[in-house]
């Protein structure tokens, strides 16, 4: 009964948080973000506009006074601000890579990282075993060295 | 009249359900602490602090506000002040480690050093969870999440802070909550990985005399060895072993008692309620938090599995078999993990007393978890 109660409490907590994350709707873009987008749009050439309209995905871009400096590059991408999820007027810049996919705000999935970081797992476990083995050896030596003293026993 | 209700009016005019959810989470933590007696020393202050910082307009965790020339317009809230004083610089968890070190008796592991190896094996969950977390999080955050598997609050706080993780709050809640849930998490994992015959393996306890000199030299030697291999762990290991040295030296009984009781309790109060300053709804109620809670559970499960499977692996080569459940006690949740293994052994065979072996392994897990934390810091700092 105790286990069931605890599991029920944990399940309720997880369900509440899941419901919250799923039901979170994209907030409308801030006025600042819309204004910056308009500046960027105004500086694009016709060719760049055509390329932009063909893009279906655009990464979020940091809203700052310096964003117009980035619009001259050929690979400029502009976030579709009507669909942007802005939080407190801060939109962090995120690069989209060929590997990463986005599953939620700020959460990307890069499966290759699991394999890439296995070396850390190997090194870490090896390191712990080496240190513990050394401690075991030293402890054994200490026991042997100081076991002879009759007045020293506990 | 409006002044009296201005905060309420402001809140309801721009209603947000998230603070209420955090109140519920705080209430759940308090319920688990009081009614279920699950790590009450930490869950209760954390639960209350979660309610405190999520009251609309609360300044308990507010940061100090400065004007353009650096003058203070409004002071930082008390929780923020405590956070800067003791968590941001990892001071509180390190001082708590002095108390923990003073509480630990290394006698069982000193009399049978071979069992220390299971403490190492049971840290597998840390690194496996790190690899899994790196799929979803940047590498430093993934490492901070992996260290939940250390099953050690101070280690988790120190590592997460030093790696500047943005998920300190959820990591702390996960670490301490799962430490309290070890009696529920471990048994199913142990039963799934072992047969009844293996669980009934007896391990006769042959106590060896451990000299006082060994007990005094042990913490000093551990600090030097761990520090040479993982310099980042010197503060963690050092404070833990300093506490133990105070206990074992025999001439500082009053300091030992103070460290075990007054100091540990005082820091625990501050730690619990200050950690709650990271439980603001904006920081806490994110999909990442849910993922961290899931990964934390993963870490504990794989810690347990690592210890048990390693024991089974060793049994392939040993004549005197080891009860694989003892491997599961290597998780650093002291002393719960040791007690759980002992109880499971008694349940299978009422004459099978595994307490001394499991507590020895449990204690070695404490050392191994701190070393793991130091290695993580070495890799990613």
In short:
The complex is a heterodimer of chains A (154) and B (381). Helix content of chain A is 51%, strand content 5%. Chain A is mainly alpha-helical.
Beta content of chain B comes to under 5%
Strand content of chain A: under 5%
Low-confidence stretches of chain A: 17-37, 55-98, 150-154
Q: What is the count of helical runs of chain B?
A: 21
Q: What's the count of strands of chain A? A: 2
Number of extended strands of chain B: 2
Percent range of helical residues of chain A: 40-55%
Strand order of the largest sheet of chain B: 1-2
Describe the main β-sheet of chain A briefly.
2 strands, antiparallel
From the N-terminal CA to the C-terminal CA of chain B, the straight-line distance is: 54 Å
Rg of chain B, Å, rounded: 22 Å
Structural class, from helix and strand content of chain B?
Answer: mainly alpha
Oligomer: heterodimer
Mean pLDDT of chain A: 59
Task: Give the chain pair forming the largest contact, with residue counts.
Answer: A-B, 55 and 67 residues
Helix content estimate of chain B? 55-70%
Computed structural class of chain A: mainly alpha
Brief descriptors of the model:
heterodimer; A: 154 residues; mainly alpha; two-stranded antiparallel sheet; rod-shaped; B: 381 residues
Outline the structure in words.
- The complex is a heterodimer of chains A (154) and B (381).
- Helices cover 51% and strands 5% of the residues of chain A.
- By secondary structure, chain A is mostly helical.
- In chain A, a hairpin with a 2-residue loop joins strand 1 and strand 2 (107-109).
- The model of chain A is unreliable at 17-37, 55-98 and 150-154 (pLDDT under 50).
- Chain B is mainly alpha-helical and 381 residues long.
- Chain B is built from 21 helices and 2 strands.
- Chain B has helices at 2-13, 18-34, 40-53, 78-87, 91-103, 107-111, 116-121, 124-133, 139-146, 153-162, 168-180, 182-193, 196-199, 212-229, 234-248, 253-275, 281-284, 287-315, 325-328, 336-348, 355-380, and strands at residues 65-66, 72-74.
- Chain B has a two-stranded antiparallel ribbon with strand order 1-2.
- The mean pLDDT of chain B is 89.
- At the A-B interface, helix 1, strand 2, helix 4 and helix 5 of A face helix 2, helix 6, helix 7, helix 8 and helix 14 of B.
């Amino acid at each position: 009964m105790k286990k069931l109660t605890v599991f029920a409490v944990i399940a309720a907590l997880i369900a509440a948080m899941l419901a919250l994350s799923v039901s979170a709707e994209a907030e409308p873009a801030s006025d600042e973000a819309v204004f910056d987008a308009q500046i960027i749009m105004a500086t694009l050439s016709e060719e760049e506009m055509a390329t932009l309209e063909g893009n279906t995905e655009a990464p979020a871009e940091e809203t700052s006074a310096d964003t117009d400096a980035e619009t001259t590059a050929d690979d400029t991408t502009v976030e579709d601000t009507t669909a942007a999820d802005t939080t407190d007027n801060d939109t962090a810049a995120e690069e989209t890579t060929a590997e990463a996919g986005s599953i939620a705000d700020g959460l990307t999935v890069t499966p290759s990282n699991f394999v890439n970081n296995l070396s850390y797992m190997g090194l870490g476990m090896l390191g712990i075993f080496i240190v513990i083995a050394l401690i075991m050896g030293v402890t054994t030596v200490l026991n042997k060295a100081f076991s002879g003293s009759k007045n020293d026993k506990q | 009249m409006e002044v009296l209700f201005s905060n309420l009016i402001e809140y309801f005019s721009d209603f947000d359900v998230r603070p209420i959810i955090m109140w519920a989470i705080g209430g759940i933590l308090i319920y688990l602490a009081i009614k279920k007696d699950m790590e009450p020393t930490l869950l209760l202050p954390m639960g209350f602090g979660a309610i405190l910082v999520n009251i609309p307009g609360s300044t308990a965790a507010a940061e100090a506000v400065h004007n353009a020339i650096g003058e203070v317009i409004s002071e930082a809230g008390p929780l923020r002040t405590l956070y800067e004083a003791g968590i941001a610089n990892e001071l509180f968890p390190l001082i708590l480690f002095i108390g923990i070190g003073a509480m630990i008796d290394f006698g069982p592991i000193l009399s049978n050093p071979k069992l220390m190896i299971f403490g190492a094996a049971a840290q597998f969950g840390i690194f496996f969870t790190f690899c899994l977390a790196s799929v979803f999080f940047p590498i430093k955050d993934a490492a901070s999440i992996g260290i939940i598997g250390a099953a050690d609050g101070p280690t988790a706080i120190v590592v997460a802070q030093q790696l500047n993780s943005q998920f300190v709050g959820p990591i702390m809640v996960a670490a301490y909550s799962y430490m309290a849930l070890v009696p529920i998490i471990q048994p199913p994992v142990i039963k799934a990985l072992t047969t009844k015959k293996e669980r009934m393996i007896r391990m006769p306890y042959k106590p060896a005399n451990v000299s006082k000199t060994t007990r005094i030299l042990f913490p000093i030697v551990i600090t030097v060895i761990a520090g040479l291999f993982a310099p980042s762990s010197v503060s963690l290991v050092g404070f833990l072993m300093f506490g133990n040295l105070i206990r074992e030296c025999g001439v500082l009984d009053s300091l030992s008692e103070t460290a075990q009781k007054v100091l540990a309790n005082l820091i625990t109060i501050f730690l619990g309620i200050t950690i709650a300053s990271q439980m603001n709804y904006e920081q806490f109620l994110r999909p990442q938090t849910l993922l961290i809670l899931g990964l934390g559970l993963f870490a504990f499960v794989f810690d347990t599995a690592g210890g048990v499977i390693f024991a089974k692996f060793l049994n392939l080569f040993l004549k005197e078999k080891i009860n694989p459940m003892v491997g599961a006690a290597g998780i650093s949740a002291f002393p719960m993990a040791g007690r759980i293994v002992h109880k499971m052994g008694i349940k299978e065979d009422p004459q099978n007393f595994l307490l001394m072996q499991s507590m020895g392994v449990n204690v070695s897990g404490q050392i191994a978890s701190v070393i793991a934390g130091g290695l993580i810091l070495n890799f990613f700092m």
